[in-house]
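I am sending you the entry underneath: sequence plus fold tokens. Let me know what the token row says about the fold:
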Amino acid sequence: MDNMNYSTDVEYESQNKKKFQITRGMVILAILALIILITVIIIIIRVTGSTKKYTNADFSRLEARMLEEAPTYISQKQIILTDKQTRIDLKDLLIENGGFIDSSKVKAAKVCQGYVIAIKQESEKYYAYIKCGNMYTSTGYISNDNGNDVSTTQAAIEDKTAPIITLIGESEMSIKVGDDFVDPGAKATDNIDGNLTSKIVKSGTVDTKNVGSYVITYSVTDTSGNKSDVKRTVKVIPSITTQPATTKPTSNKTTTTKKTTAPKNITKPTKPPTIILLGNKIITIEVGKTYRDPGYSATDYLGKNITSSVKVSSNLNTSYPGTYYVTYNVSDSYGNKASVTRTIIVKLTSIQLSGIKLSPNSLEMSPGQTKTLTVYYTPSNATDKTISWSSDNPSVATVSNGVVTAKSRGIATITVKSSNGKKDTARVTVK
């Protein structure tokens, strides 16, 4: 009987141990699940944090740097721009690939892909496009899905913006019947094609011999097929007329005189003429540069061209920095006057040097041999390009104005430094 009880106790203890082992396993699983959950949360926080640290200012900065460096890339690669669009990939502008954009300073370059479109029409034009995950995409960005790794390829810009046509003068004009109508014209610009004024097509006529209202339409189409048009209404109004008037006879004679009358709806214009300035109303030029006025036009209230009557005066002196004014005055035949002013800002323009780079960045030479290092400036049109050269080991290699002379076996570092502290180095190995 005692043996039976002992056996029962052992079985009971064994069952308790089994229950304890199952519970411990569950605890281990729970701990593992908790660790996985914490890891996932940390990853989400890091991903979210990395997304939040980029702002629109970062992306705009990258686009600006791409536009700054694209002309230098074109120059280095000796690419001749034409009216065909040339594509420059962002990766080719990065410093690790021989460019000048440092992703440690322009941090959006780490998460973005993109390109610059370069084209030459009347002048060179550059357009930057980037895509930065789900954070930012430039308007007009086109993905290069064909996997082409060539750094310079042709690409089309998706242009859906219509040109802008601006009427010179008023949109509604009036002239007297029998007078000549001089069309002030219009000008047109496009976001891609630039100045399209010469491409404007005009339709409609004005019959100056007959009173009535006439419409002139100005249309223009850009190279992408986007079209715009504007209309001008020209009213031909009656001129002052003369009518005969007969007086009653005071004797046997009848005297006929002419009496001048005007229709009730014709009055002497009292509104001033209109002066239209071509070009910008505020113009900035550099000290010492020649100022060339973009031009102007003037019409009176009835639409008559009085541009030749405009008198121009100015206090402009391009030899000294300052703000100056060009004033345009005109009077019509009725004594109505008009005046407009254009502001001219003369200033000393200084373009800051943001970086310099040596090419090549390493040389292998023999004693007595000379080689030349080339310096590239960013931007290429920087105002001050003053630089100095030095060698950390003149016994191995010396440098003068970029010309390296090998002296003896060893290694030397050649440094070029700008006046504002920008520098780059090249390693010279003399064997």
